[in-house]
Amino acid sequence: MIKNTAKKLKTVAGGKGCEGAYKNLAVQFEKIWREAVRATTGGMSKKSHFRYRDSMTGFLRFCVDKYHLEKLANIREKHLRAYVDYRRQAGITEKTLKNDLTAIRFFHQFTGSRNELPDNRSLGIEKTLQGVKDRAWTNEEYRLMVEKAVGLGRQDVVLAIRLSRLAGLRIHECARLTVGHIQDALREGWVTIKGKGGRVRLVPVQPELRAELEHFLDENGGARERKLFVAPGQKTHQVIRSIEKFIRDHRQEFTSRAITPHGLRHSYAREEFEREVCDSKDRQHIKEAKLNVAELLGHGRPEVTDLYLHSGKK
Predict the structure, then answer these.
(1) Has residue 135 been placed in a domain?
(2) Residue 41 sits in the same domain as residue 147
């Protein structure tokens, strides 16, 4: 793995003079990579780990070529600012740039560095509200997709759609749920979810969600450790792909939009925001409502809520 990382780092521009620096950083990064994966397995998907890895590798190539960086712990503000300028000159979108910066900050926390990296605002990264498509499902799209899944006997799709719509869960978060999680949720009044980066959040069990969970236990039950979606011998990623494929294959039957499972989180966010705000015009109240919704979504930053609420209103 170290040899492969070194090869990736060498492929960009530097040449033979940077070969030693590339190899040195590759060794350091492999150690941090293993620690990061170990610390966040279960809280972050394997796909996200490798996507972050690719973004970080590109950043390290830049740092070696431009600054002859030798230690990951020495990454600081000047490197990020220069990288932002470099990526913009290459025509990279703000959204992609934000994803790259998220990956850099993710691995930076495992370097032991005392250098604090600047946030997106101080780097001049724009919010990606302009031109963002409305991804939230309409009530009609939600109803028809559920009916389709019921008609074809895909109870796993039905449950995943309902959990995403009524609790704002990501598909991979649904896939981790067990019978024990449902039993605890009905007893305590909230679902405990471990999301991206190992971030734990508590999602209230609203009446409609409670009815759905109670119905599931009545129909299925089982030992506490039994997973709701992944049967013995199945692979989690295969289950997730199957649910995503079902939605992708049948959405054109009743909508012209490319709705995705993630869009159900947008629908959930709007409903919870409206529940929090209740037509209030008070700015502080609205800000607090956005923060509360962000927490329910597993983000924790009120500005993230704007992306989910995007519908022509602020």
Answers:
(1) no
(2) no
